[in-house]
Design goal:
Number of strands: 20
Radius of gyration: 23 Å
Distance between the termini: 24 Å
Strand order of the largest sheet: 1-4-5-6-7-8
Strand content: 25-35%
Shape: elongated
Low-confidence stretches: 1-19, 132-141
Helix content: 25-40%
Mean pLDDT: 87
Number of helices: 11
Length: 383
């Protein structure tokens, strides 16, 4: 349900800063981005102002709802979720406007997923509303490639034999602790409990290892000392791997259920945590379904609107690499990947946003079981 803001015109974001909601909406009207005289501030319980500011107005032509955010992708999912709620409850058929000063490549990719909706949708770039000096940051170009780890080992310019031994050690640790090894950019990453813990790279004609967890450090590998270094790495990770608080956290939940999610859908060519280069893992599993379609899956404790946006961005970024990651193992139909989502709790806003997308998906509820690992139950009626 929506509600009006009270006397305070400011709302606090997740980082503790204040957002001047009323002034933000006034600037949208002043810039002529909407054909209404004013926008009334409104809010939804599970669309926080830290994600987007919501407003509503009415012209002679049609009712209008607006979401404003610094990032275009957030504005888009917010206004889609809010407009869909109004459509479900009140038959809203007006204009849903996503306004942002920045529309990154990832944000524009999100727009390609929007399906048939009962209202009009429009995305607007409002660079004049950007805070600060409107400095344009350089485009770093293409994203680093997601490749099979063995390809990086074979292409190393240093000690190839040592690199392959180190890769085998990573694969052993991944197999032992239910993790994954992936190639990304110029390195090979070891992922345990949904976090990248170490990276192998060519290093001045040799092989170097960057340790990221539990503390950052670097090691120069050698043939004689490789076993000692890898034993020390595993030892340093044991506290985290065996910590009950970690294993019962969202990271632990994802580690427990990623393969179960793939098994529930009967996926082949399964790979855990395939997308590197992010501080926090987003995609938990990819595979191929019985019809040869690529499938992307993610597990969360709570699927919020913000979390959904991050998953969509990651799935779209991963899409060009799926044929290389999955194709060699089975016949693969090239096309948009199916989406698998599992969570203990689904925010209504996330479900409403999903309903506006053309993405095929299956949703699973995470069910707790006393003294045993959690299980998955398919949600009925989800398409």
């Amino acid at each position: 349900m929506r509600r009006r803001f009270g006397r305070s015109r400011k709302k606090t974001t997740d980082d503790g800063s204040a957002v001047d909601v009323v002034r933000g909406l006034e600037r949208i009207v002043e810039a002529g981005l909407v054909s209404v005289e004013a926008l009334e501030p409104v809010s939804a319980d599970d669309i926080p102002p830290s994600l987007a500011i919501l407003g509503r107005g009415h012209s002679e032509d049609q009712p209008t709802v607006v979401a404003f955010s610094v990032f275009g992708g957030d504005a888009a999912v917010a206004v889609l979720a809010f407009a869909q709620q109004l459509a479900d409850q009140h038959g809203f058929e007006g204009l849903a406007l996503a306004v942002a000063p920045q529309w990154s490549i990832a944000a524009r990719r999100r727009l390609t997923l929007i399906g048939d909706v009962p209202f009009q949708f429009r995305a607007v770039a409002a660079s004049a509303m950007a805070d600060g000096d409107n400095v344009v940051e350089p485009d770093t170009g293409a994203e680093p490639p997601v490749v099979v780890a063995e390809q990086i080992a074979l292409g190393s310019t240093g000690d190839t034999a040592l690199y392959r031994r180190a890769l085998a050690a990573f694969e052993g640790l991944a197999a032992k602790h239910g993790g994954a090894v992936r190639g990304f950019g110029d390195g090979v990453e070891l992922v345990l409990l949904a976090r990248c813990v170490a990276v192998l790279r060519d290093e001045e004609g040799g092989v170097g290892m960057e340790i990221r967890l539990p503390e950052r450090s670097r090691e120069r590998l050698s043939s004689s000392g490789l076993a000692t270094v890898m034993d020390r790495l595993e030892g340093s990770l044991r506290k985290r791997l065996n910590d009950r608080r970690v294993r019962s956290s969202e990271e632990g939940l994802r580690a427990q259920l990623a393969l179960k999610l793939a098994e529930a859908e009967g996926l082949g060519a399964v790979r855990l945590w395939p997308l590197g280069g992010l501080d926090v893992e987003v995609i938990d599993v990819v595979g191929i379904d019985s019809e040869g379609r690529p499938v992307v899956g993610a597990v969360r404790s709570r699927l919020t609107l913000s979390a959904l946006g991050s998953i969509l961005d990651a799935a779209l970024a991963l899409r060009p690499a799926l044929a290389g990651l999955l194709g060699p193992a089975a016949a693969l139909r090239i096309g948009p990947p199916r989406l698998l989502l599992a969570a203990r709790d689904f925010d209504d806003s996330a479900l409403r946003a999903l309903a506006t997308l053309s993405v095929e998906r299956s949703l699973y509820d995470v069910q707790a079981r006393r003294g045993r690992e959690p299980d998955l139950a398919l949600r009925e009626g989800v398409s």
